[in-house]
UniProtKB/TrEMBL annotation:
GO terms for biological process: riboflavin biosynthetic process. This is Riboflavin biosynthesis protein RibD. InterPro entries: DHFR-like_dom_sf, RibDG_C, Riboflavin_Biosynth_HTPR. It comes from the Bacteria. Transmembrane segments: none annotated. GO terms for molecular function: 5-amino-6-(5-phosphoribosylamino)uracil reductase activity. Residues 3-186 form the Bacterial bifunctional deaminase-reductase C-terminal domain. It comes from Acidipropionibacterium acidipropionici.
Amino acid sequence: MRSLTYYIAVSLDGYIAGPDGQFDAFLAEGDHMAGIWERYRGTAPTQLAEAVGLPLDGGPFDTVLMGWNTYAVGMPDQHRPSPYQHLRQIVFTRTHEGPPGSEDVTFTGSDPVAVVRALKEEDGKDIWLCGGGTLAAVLAEEIDRLALKINPVQFGAGIPLFGTRAYAPAAWRRVDTTAFDSGVVLAEYRRP
């Protein structure tokens, strides 16, 4: 059975974006980049990875899930309607249609839990939840692994890692922790 991994950058105070949705305070350069890419290859948008020479094959995921707001971040000018062309892309939205050029992206208003449960039954590599916090809150019980790129910044407010929905406390087992000189810590957890 495939597993769902919530792999995402997060601030020290638990936000995946600032109050206005900004995430530019997360470190995009430093010794953590190569180490994290080796572990989570294929998690950069296709055009970006190709432009900087990052290999896209051999990664742990073949499917990426995101909410509309996460999807929309990558296409402010509508020139990147299919950000992860090398992966199966599913965007959860009840109010938006896919823009022109997004034919290889699935837009769905279906229940995210039902979709994830069906995906887990399929053959293939693991599934990557890349955002956002609201979708992560809905899928909290379905997430099998957390891979948190903890950045040495504080936002003070913004989009919480697991949105604002109330859910039962859950214990996680640490799988690995890697600290980099940049100050970024890759912390990986699995459900016990």
